[in-house]
Amino acid sequence: LFSVVNVLGVRWLAESNRWITAWKIAIPVLTVIVFLVVFHHFDNLSSHGFAPNGVAPIFTALSTGVVFAYLGFEQAVEFGAESANPRRNIPLAVIGSVVLGVVVYLGLAIAFATSFEPSALAKGWSNLSFPGSFGPYAAIASAAGLGWLAFLLYVDAVVSPGGTGLLYVGSTARMSFGMARMRTVPDVFASLNERRVPVVSIVVAMVLGFAFLFPLPSWQTIIGIVTGATVLAYGMQPLTLGALRRQAPERDRPFRLQLGEIISPVAFVIANLIIYWSTWTVVWKLMLAVLVGYLILAIGSLVRPQATRPQLDWRAGYWLLPYLGGLTLVSYVGAQDFGGRGLFPFGWDALVVAVFSVAIYVLAIRLRLPDATAEKYMTELSAEAESEEEELGELGVVTA
Question: Is residue 50 within 8 Å of 378, Cβ to Cβ?
Answer without folding.
Answer: no
